[in-house]
Protein backbone atom coordinates (compact mmCIF):
# COMPACT_ATOMS: atom_id res chain seq x y z
CA UNK A 1 0.00 0.00 0.00
CA UNK A 2 3.04 2.26 0.10
CA UNK A 3 2.60 3.04 -3.60
CA UNK A 4 -1.02 4.09 -3.10
CA UNK A 5 0.04 6.34 -0.22
CA UNK A 6 2.68 7.94 -2.45
CA UNK A 7 0.12 8.55 -5.21
CA UNK A 8 -2.13 10.31 -2.68
CA UNK A 9 0.85 12.38 -1.53
CA UNK A 10 1.48 13.42 -5.13
CA UNK A 11 -2.18 14.36 -5.57
CA UNK A 12 -2.07 16.38 -2.35
CA UNK A 13 1.11 18.19 -3.45
CA UNK A 14 -0.47 18.84 -6.84
CA UNK A 15 -3.60 20.37 -5.29
CA UNK A 16 -1.55 22.55 -2.93
CA UNK A 17 0.90 23.75 -5.56
CA UNK A 18 1.09 27.45 -6.33
CA UNK A 19 0.27 26.77 -9.99
CA UNK A 20 -3.00 25.05 -9.10
CA UNK A 21 -3.86 27.78 -6.62
CA UNK A 22 -3.26 30.42 -9.32
CA UNK A 23 -5.36 28.39 -11.75
CA UNK A 24 -8.24 28.27 -9.24
CA UNK A 25 -7.96 32.02 -8.61
CA UNK A 26 -8.06 32.81 -12.30
CA UNK A 27 -11.04 30.49 -12.74
CA UNK A 28 -12.89 32.33 -9.95
CA UNK A 29 -12.08 35.69 -11.56
CA UNK A 30 -13.38 34.42 -14.89
CA UNK A 31 -16.61 33.22 -13.29
CA UNK A 32 -17.09 36.68 -11.73
CA UNK A 33 -16.10 38.75 -14.78
CA UNK A 34 -19.10 40.84 -15.81
CA UNK A 35 -17.82 41.67 -19.27
CA UNK A 36 -17.20 38.01 -20.02
CA UNK A 37 -20.65 37.06 -18.72
CA UNK A 38 -22.24 39.66 -21.01
CA UNK A 39 -20.31 38.37 -24.01
CA UNK A 40 -21.29 34.78 -23.25
CA UNK A 41 -24.90 35.81 -22.80
CA UNK A 42 -24.79 37.53 -26.18
CA UNK A 43 -23.35 34.39 -27.81
CA UNK A 44 -26.21 32.28 -26.46
CA UNK A 45 -28.86 34.35 -28.23
CA UNK A 46 -30.69 32.39 -30.88
CA UNK A 47 -30.69 34.72 -33.88
CA UNK A 48 -27.08 35.82 -33.84
CA UNK A 49 -25.31 36.36 -37.14
CA UNK A 50 -22.15 34.41 -37.96
CA UNK A 51 -20.11 37.59 -38.22
CA UNK A 52 -21.29 38.82 -34.85
CA UNK A 53 -20.63 35.41 -33.30
CA UNK A 54 -17.08 35.39 -34.65
CA UNK A 55 -16.54 38.92 -33.35
CA UNK A 56 -17.79 37.98 -29.88
CA UNK A 57 -15.61 34.85 -29.74
CA UNK A 58 -12.62 36.89 -30.85
CA UNK A 59 -13.25 39.37 -28.04
CA UNK A 60 -13.47 36.54 -25.51
CA UNK A 61 -10.31 34.72 -26.53
CA UNK A 62 -8.28 37.95 -26.61
CA UNK A 63 -9.21 38.90 -23.04
CA UNK A 64 -6.00 38.67 -20.96
CA UNK A 65 -7.65 36.64 -18.18
CA UNK A 66 -9.07 34.14 -20.67
CA UNK A 67 -5.71 33.85 -22.42
CA UNK A 68 -3.98 33.15 -19.10
CA UNK A 69 -6.63 30.62 -18.10
CA UNK A 70 -6.37 28.77 -21.42
CA UNK A 71 -2.57 28.75 -21.19
CA UNK A 72 -2.65 27.25 -17.70
CA UNK A 73 -5.40 24.84 -18.69
CA UNK A 74 -3.26 23.57 -21.57
CA UNK A 75 -0.23 23.15 -19.31
CA UNK A 76 -2.28 21.12 -16.83
CA UNK A 77 -3.79 19.06 -19.62
CA UNK A 78 -0.37 18.11 -21.00
CA UNK A 79 0.92 17.38 -17.51
CA UNK A 80 -1.96 14.96 -16.95
CA UNK A 81 -1.30 13.35 -20.36
CA UNK A 82 2.32 12.90 -19.41
CA UNK A 83 1.39 11.35 -16.06
CA UNK A 84 -1.09 8.99 -17.73
CA UNK A 85 1.58 7.94 -20.22
CA UNK A 86 3.96 7.14 -17.37
CA UNK A 87 1.29 5.02 -15.65
CA UNK A 88 0.65 3.15 -18.91
CA UNK A 89 4.38 2.47 -19.26
CA UNK A 90 4.45 1.06 -15.74
CA UNK A 91 1.55 -1.33 -16.08
CA UNK A 92 2.01 -1.99 -19.78
CA UNK A 93 -1.67 -2.06 -20.69
CA UNK A 94 -3.90 0.39 -22.49
CA UNK A 95 -7.07 -0.81 -20.82
CA UNK A 96 -8.13 -2.27 -17.52
CA UNK A 97 -8.32 -5.84 -18.86
CA UNK A 98 -6.71 -8.51 -16.74
Give the SSE string: HHHHH
* Number of extended strands: 0
Low-confidence stretches: none
**Average of per-residue pLDDT values:** 89
Number of helices: 5
Rg, alpha carbons: 19 Å
Describe the fold and architecture.
The chain is mainly alpha-helical. The protein has one domain (2-84). It contains five helices and no strands. The protein has helices at residues 2-16, 18-32, 34-43, 50-61, 64-91. Helix 2 crosses helix 5 and helix 3 (34-43) packs antiparallel against helix 4 (50-61). The longest helix is centred in the last third of the chain and has 28 residues, at 64-91. The mean pLDDT is 89.
How are the SSEs ordered, and which strands pair?
Elements: H1 2-16, H2 18-32, H3 34-43, H4 50-61, H5 64-91
Task: Give the gist of this structure.
The chain is mostly helical. The chain is built from five helices and no strands.
Amino acid sequence: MELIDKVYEIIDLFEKSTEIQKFKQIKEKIEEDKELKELLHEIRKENISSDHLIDLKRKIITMPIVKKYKQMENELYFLSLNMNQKFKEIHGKKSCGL
